[in-house]
Amino acid sequence: MTAKELFGTVNAALRETVSTENESRTDLWTASPPPALRTAAALTWRILPASRVHEALAIWRRLELTLQNQSLSCCSTWVDQWLQVYGHVVRYRFLIVEDETMPVAIVLVVESRQQVGPVQVRTLHLGTAGEPQPGSVCVEYNRLLIQPDYRQAVLAGLMQYVQANRRWEQLRLDGFTADDLALWQQGFPQAEIRWRDSRFCDLAAVRAAGGDLLSQLGRSTRSNLRRRLKHYGTLECEWAENLEQASDILQELIQLHQARWQAAGQPGAFASSRFLEFQQSGSLRLFLEQRVVLFRVRHEGATVGCLLLLNDGNRLLDYLSGFASFDEKPSPGLTTHYLCMEQALRRNFAAYDFLVGDKRHKDNLSNAVTQLGWLTCTRPSLKMQALQGLRILKRRAGSLLRKPAHAPCPSVETLSEESSTPTASI
Question: Which among 23, 124, 237, 238 has most CB atoms closer than 10 A?
Fold first, then answer.
């Protein structure tokens, strides 16, 4: 059955029931699904409010085990930790989809208010997104926990659920892959998508080419790495194998990260108490499930750099880092990442992903690129039309006042990891 046909079968049922949804309601259909939906997809849909979070997470864990889910952003531990830290500053509920015997999907639906220019906008998000800035976890490779055989049917119903919810002014789907956004683009053709490159090193391709990582990098990068490694001499690499090691590396990562950012006149990611709480507790919980890697490089007793990487289905995501001062240790970021990549290659990981954002070492150490998208669908209203008008005026004013291309100094956001100033990425 095509997505268009499914849209038609679920539209009427969801339009009537979701419009009256409130926090005390637990079922979209109190008894059984409407006949049209039963015929089309044999699915039932119900909502669990935030007050029943423990029941919802128990369902989430069972489905995760059934599907043998390896995706990090929709694993129950990540979701649970996010709700513990951010659940009191957003409004959320769980949409549960079941066939005749068991759940086949569970989706975290988040409502929030985001500052857009001079006004606040009511936003709707799917997954662990929508928390206030600063202090967001900045989810990337966002995914929904859906049984593959039911994916099209669930997404069709989910789109109708979203359309029937009249509270949001902007729908935002944050950090999804192109494949995951394809059906949403069909369902919301007026939506805008901001695509961003996520550069990575395809470790499987390196193995297929003989397993020599250095030979797969560019000539100038190879030369630079050989020179740096020769300068350092002996380097100690530590891949955390127990909780004590992991905790020690994490604490030093936080200290190094904050020191470099504050030296550049910036607060640093861990200045947010919410973000600090999420990482200090959540990262160690995920480490125990082998979903987080903590890595450290030392030289002559002093730390060169620390990394926290997320294990997303055997794909390592470069999530957090802390490096020594450039004045103390040459090329600390490049050196630490390269040595971690060597370890990841030996440990049979499929890829080493640097996530979005522009840094020189991402270009130097990657051999492939994919794209992640941030979809925004804005409902027409006088408020949003006025906001769009202000944006247009601001862009025009900016173009008139903009200096020649060579004039501006590089901002903190555009400086390379190999400079003495950290970049804007986490």
Answer: 124
Look up residue 157 and give its two tokens: 């119903």
Task: Report the C-alpha gap between 288 and 25 in whole angstroms.
Answer: 36
What is the Cα–Cα distance from 216 to 205, expressed in whole angstroms?
A: 9
pTM: 0.85
- 316 contacts 351 by C-beta, under 8 angstroms: yes
Q: How far apart are CA 269 and CA 124, in angstroms?
A: 24
CATH of the domain at 171: 3.40.630.30
Instruction: State pLDDT tens for residues 356-393.
Output: 998 889 999 999 999 999 999 999 877 777 777 777 77
Per-residue model confidence as pLDDT tens digits over 392-421: 777 777 666 654 433 333 222 222 343 333
